[in-house]
Amino acid sequence: MTPVKKVTISLPTEILQVVDEYARSEDQSRSFVIKEAIESYLKEEVERRTVAEAAQIYAQIEKSDRQLSEEFLSISSETLSSPKRKDRDGSTS
């Protein structure tokens, strides 16, 4: 079994009543319900932060890709629009 520590927290009476009612309806202890609620909250928070960080990374990648595309198009258009030179054999390249 995982070691446990007792803590003291203060909750508004209304929240504690809801927790107690839920615990009774699920045949669980108050501690179990509060522990599950905290675990659920922390899991959701980690997921939210991960998604936010990923969105920032993808935005940076998008910006970088756009810059590379613009640079490539610029170089491509310069290359395509430059006058053709003649090789030694008289053909153009």
Automatic annotation (TrEMBL):
Record protein name field: Ribbon-helix-helix protein CopG domain-containing protein
One annotated GO biological process: regulation of DNA-templated transcription
Pfam families: RHH_1
Domain Ribbon-helix-helix protein CopG as annotated: residue spans: 5-45
